[in-house]
Specification:
Largest sheet: 5 strands, antiparallel
Helix content: 55-70%
Strand content: 5-15%
Oligomer: single chain
Distance between the termini: 40 Å
CATH architecture of the largest domain: 2-Layer Sandwich
Order of helices and strands: HHHHHEHHEEHEE
Shape: elongated
Structural class: alpha+beta
Number of domains: 2
Length: about 270
């Protein structure tokens, strides 16, 4: 995202007069002001890219309220406040553009400080990803093509890892069984077509969090009212009835399913 922001900044600075012309402004007195304004704002594209990246990241992490406030500060509160303030201070339109140029940097600083105070200070969470500091030791990520062989190897590996971490047998069995059935169901749904998957297994203090991201046909496995067309789907559907913590999201053409298996199997 940072590289993208740099490329866009360089491109904008090199072609600013032509971009202004594209809006139908040529020899008009506004042309010079338009060039200046666009160049000022172009200097903020790197920060804009990073803020957009963090907005998406926090949203997908399940911190929707945090993502909302970041978006609100970035797109409304900071630019509006600073544009009006600098316009008054300079008594000119130039002040408005200066305020808009400073706004993303101000948003980044304000949001960073707020996130640090709220989520990081005195807590075992790293900034800015808000993951446990010791989470790497209990987070396992797999990337593979879905096949019978890869499914068997993955579930065997996950079963061994969860056993070595003293995960309760009932919770471990439920998570591994679900993982196996889900992967085989995805393979059945795609009728033998090549399907990529990313699987993240996180062992948390009170349970196992399983995140699956996979390509292919779009379908929501968390929907217990979906039409059941196979025995395997029947198994998955019945498991969903007892699964309280679950979420499905379609993102960038991929299915994303997140499930939480509590150590208290009845919870």
């Amino acid at each position: 995202m940072a590289v993208t922001g740099v490329i866009l900044t360089v491109f904008t600075l090199m072609t600013t007069p032509y971009l202004v012309n594209a809006f139908g402004i040529y020899g008009d007195p506004l042309h010079g002001e338009g060039v200046m304004a666009l160049r000022i704002v172009s200097a903020t594209l790197v920060i804009h890219s990073l803020l957009v990246l963090f907005f998406i990241y926090y949203y997908l992490m399940g911190k929707q309220l945090l993502a909302f406030w970041l978006c609100l500060i970035k797109n409304l509160i900071s630019p509006l406040t600073l544009a009006v303030l600098f316009s008054i201070l300079t008594e000119s339109r130039t002040g408005m553009w200066i305020g808009l140029a400073i706004a993303p940097f101000t948003s980044f600083i304000v949001c960073s400080q707020a996130i640090y105070i709220k989520y990081v200070k005195n807590k075992q969470e790293g900034f800015p990803f808000l993951l446990p500091v010791d989470g790497d030791e209990k987070t396992f990520i797999y990337s593979f093509d879905i096949s019978v062989e890869n499914t068997a190897a993955l579930t065997e590996n996950v079963d061994e890892i969860l056993g070595s971490l003293s995960v309760p047998d009932k919770t471990k069995t439920m998570a591994v069984l679900f993982l196996e059935e889900l992967l085989l169901l995805i393979m059945d749904k795609n009728e033998g077509k090549k399907t990529n998957a990313e699987c993240t297994v996180m062992v948390e203090p009170d349970g196992i969090r399983l995140v699956m991201r996979y390509s292919g046909i779009r379908f929501d496995i968390t929907d217990v009212d979906a039409d059941v067309v196979s025995f395997r789907q029947y198994i998955i559907s019945n498991m969903m009835y007892s699964q309280k913590s679950k979420a499905y999201l379609l993102t960038t053409g991929y299915n994303r399913t997140e499930l939480f298996f509590s150590f208290n199997i009845l919870g």
